[in-house]
Every structure is written in C-alpha cells, then in structure tokens.
Specification:
single chain; 244 residues; alpha/beta; OB fold (Dihydrolipoamide Acetyltransferase, E2P); 2 domains; 5-stranded antiparallel β-sheet; 16 strands; 33% helix; 31% strand
Length: 244
C-alpha cells in the first residue's frame, strides 16, 4: 500500500499478524500526513523473505507473532541492517531488555496511539534525511542556493527577510520564516520564537534562550519556554536512542 508516494516518502514495513492492529496502525500513519510507502506483512517470515539492507526506513514489529516472534525477526534484521528504525508493538513490556539489546527505538503498547506513531515517523525521517544529506533550496540576491540541512544552525526573521545562519555562510532570503518552517523538518528544526527556528543538532545549551554552537543566541518565547524545553529534551532522548 502506498500513500503520497514520491522521492521524500518514508519507506515503512508493518509486520502484524492481527488485521485489526494492522488497520489501526495504517490509519494512524495515514493521519500523520507524512509521505510514505507502506508494505504490510502478516508474519516475520514474510517480511524476511523480501528484506534487504536499506530497504526500509522504519519497521513496526508485533512482538507476539506465530512461529517467529517480533524479537526473533528483529535479530535477523539487525544482522543485515543496523540503522533501520525498529519499533515494537506489544501488549506487554516483558521484552523491554531485548528491545534495548536490538536497538529498538521504543515499544508501542496496544492499542497504539497517534502521538507515539508520529514520534516514530519523525525519528525515522530525521535519520533518513541525515543519511541522505537533505537540502534546502532558496534564492538569495536573485541567485539560487542549495543549503545542506546539516549546515543550518538557525534562522532569524529580520527586516522582512529571513537570515539563515550556517556553518559556513549567512544567507538572506525574502522567504518568510513561516514558509521556511514548513520546509525545515521537525523535530530537528524547532520554532522557538516567532522570529527564530533552531536546528537542535547545533544547540550547545538551553538556558533562558538557546545557545548555539556558533556562539549566537536564538531567542525562546517566554510563554512557550516550558513547552520548547520539553521538545528539546525529547529530541535529545530520541536521537540518543536512534544513534545507539
């Protein structure tokens, strides 16, 4: 099954032996609005028949399945691909230790909820984009410029322009910060203030405001400080789990 399939589509495998669970997860993935291509499998054996390295960005695995469990399926997957994001779906957390051993991103307790699914989709997108070297295309002084997302430190709205600070250059564009926010993928890029978007990979510290690794300060809206700090902490945790 495919939805919104294009070059940016997230490649997802869903391995569930219960149709109602398959239907629920599929619906939640679709509700996220993340472009995706989805292959569904009724067993671990069926998934492994077609699996190869870098075939998928994200795999949802039911822990309790027929002859080959989700944990056993994950062991075979990890022998082939150490980077694909694995998320277990289960009615019990009995296999949590096994999940950590296999570098599973998280367990989703059934019935799964939208927030947890979106979280997994965002992490998989983040890992995929970093590996592919995703870029941002802008026009500055009537000249088209391609900027690697990895190089962007933060964006500031100033004097009806948006200024993009990178590890090498600073670019000014007439694109609004609202338009840029739509192009810069979350949770990696966070709108911390009406005039700022920060790349959380380039944050040195968060006090009252973000201290970026180039020494600059990116402001945080006072009224949203707690929410932004929570988003930053979640990002640090998710990337740490995803990079293990």
């Amino acid at each position: 099954m495919a939805a919104n399939a294009d070059d940016s589509a997230l490649r997802i495998a869903l391995c569930e032996d219960t149709p109602v669970d398959t239907d629920l997860l599929t619906a939640l993935i679709d509700m996220s609005k993340v472009p995706y291509v989805l292959d569904s499998f009724p067993s671990g054996e069926a998934l492994l028949e077609v699996f190869h390295k870098e075939k998928y960005d994200l795999i949802f695995l039911d822990v309790y399945m027929g002859e080959l469990s989700g944990v056993q399926t994950a062991e075979f997957i990890r022998d082939i691909d150490t980077q694909v994001v694995i998320v277990f779906t289960t009615t019990s957390e009995d296999f949590t230790r096994e999940g950590y051993r296999l570098n599973a991103y998280k367990y989703l307790l059934k019935p799964v909820v939208e927030e947890d699914v979106v979280d997994a989709l965002e992490l998989a997108t983040l890992k995929r984009d970093k590996a592919q070297g995703a870029t941002l295309a802008i026009v500055t002084d009537n000249i088209p410029v391609i900027i690697p997302l990895n190089d962007i430190i933060f964006v500031e709205s100033s004097n009806r322009k948006s200024v993009i600070y990178t590890t090498g250059e600073t670019y000014a564009t007439t694109m609004t910060i609202d338009a840029l926010e739509k192009l810069l993928p979350s949770p990696r890029f966070l709108r911390s203030h009406r005039s700022y978007i920060v790349n959380l990979d380039h944050v040195d510290d968060l006090e009252e405001d973000f201290i970026m690794d180039n020494g600059e300060i990116a402001y945080v809206a006072v009224k949203n400080h707690r929410k932004i700090k929570h988003a930053y902490d979640d990002y640090l945790f998710s990337t740490a789990r995803g990079d293990e």
